[in-house]
Amino acid sequence: MVTDAPRRRVAALRQPARAARLARVLWTAWALVVWNVVFDHTIVTAGRAYIRAATHDAGRTGAGAPVRMDDWMRPAVTRGMWTATAAGGAVLAAGLLSVRWAVRAASPRQDG
Fold first, then answer.
1. pTM of the full predicted structure?
2. What are φ and ψ of residue 3, in 5° steps?
3. pLDDT of 53-78, one tens digit each?
4. Which residues touch 72 (CB under 8 Å, ≥6 apart)?
């Protein structure tokens, strides 16, 4: 039958080993998405702060040092790397630990 192949594929995903592997892959992908979002947010926020500072500096009359982009963005990259790594690592750790806990809870217990 035509519907047998998709049913077999879905049934194969219900096997504990394959389901755990798929869950690990999905949690890893989610951690990468979180890392990218947090890093991007940090960079965008620093860019907006730089533009505000540069705009304020441009309207000011005086002999002060101009606002340099490197002074704002280099620390933001470092801060973004650390923050994004912490957030992505937390998601990855929580996900992998929960998959491990679920696999252990689903496995048959052997007494004695």
1. 0.77
2. -85, -5
3. 888 876 666 656 778 889 889 999 99
4. 46, 47, 49, 50, 53
